[in-house]
Amino acid sequence: MDTLLGALAIFLLRLVDVPLSTVRVVMMVRGQRRAAAVLAFFESLVWIVAISQVFARLDSPLNMFAFAAGFASGTAIGMTLEAWFAPGQVLIRAIVREGADALVRALREAGYGVTLVRGEGREGEVPILFIVVPRRKAEAVLALIHEMAPRAFVTVEGVQRAIGGHLPSVGFFPTVRR
Predict the structure, then answer these.
(1) Residue 122 domain boundaries
(2) Calculated CA dihedral for residues 158, 164, 169, 174, nearest 10 degrees
(3) pLDDT per position as a tens digit, 122-145
(4) Which of 27, 99, 147, 158 sits at a 20 to 30 Å CA gap from 17?
(5) Which CATH number covers residue 102?
(6) Strand 124-134 relative to strand 89-95: parallel, antiparallel, unpaired?
(7) Closest CA to 39 of 47, 67, 71
(8) Residue at 69 is within a domain
(9) Do 6 and 78 belong to one domain?
């Protein structure tokens, strides 16, 4: 019974430290140093406890299996948390041949800031829309674009920092350091 409880403890510890690692990496990429440092402390503390349990019983393949299974499950949980948490903004760039004006109106009526510029494509002039939105709202914007301009060429990329313009409040706008 002790062997089973030990393996379960290792598995559960990995379910904590691996998602912490995922969220820590997201915070690092977003430039949130303090949050990343705090998460790194707790991640490493939990990992040390888990690995010490494995090394305390190297003769138990069940502990090693629990460690690996916890890592795999923790990865899935971390990815789910990261998608649910969805920090930051994304830039959606849409090249729209037909219906650009109606799409711009619909996006603005929905509360999104849109910048329209004219570009040169293979077949002549094309409208290019730039929309910066909180990442958790990207799917709604993409659905609207697909509904109104199903043949649009669309790219989505992460935004390190967005300041000014018409951005919906996301609760955190860092100050610019000079």
Answers:
(1) 89-159
(2) 70
(3) 888 999 999 999 888 899 999 999
(4) 158
(5) 3.30.70.120
(6) antiparallel
(7) 47
(8) yes
(9) yes
CB atoms within 10 A of CB 159: 15
Residue with tokens 């069940």: 62
- Calpha distance 4→142 (Å, rounded): 47
In a domain, 176, yes or no: no
Strands 89-95 and 153-159: antiparallel
Which conformational region is residue 111 in: left (phi greater than 0), alpha (psi within -120 to 50 degrees), or beta?
left
Q: What are the angstrom distances between the C-alpha of 84 and each of 28, 39, 105, 122, 169? A: 18, 18, 29, 39, 18
Report CA Rg, the chain. Answer: 23
pTM of the model: 0.60
Number of separate domains in the chain: 2
Q: Provide the 3-class DSSP secondary structure of residue 81.
A: helix
Same domain, 80 and 6: yes
Q: Is residue 71 part of a domain?
A: yes
**pLDDT value of residue 109:** 94
pLDDT, tens only, 65-81: 999 999 999 999 998 88
Per-residue tokens: 11: 């598995």
Task: Measure the CA–CA gap between 72 and 98, rounded to whole angstroms.
Answer: 45
**Joined tokens for residue 76:** 């899935």
Give the separation between CA 76 and CA 69, rounded to whole angstroms.
11
Residues 6+ apart with CB under 8 A from 124: none
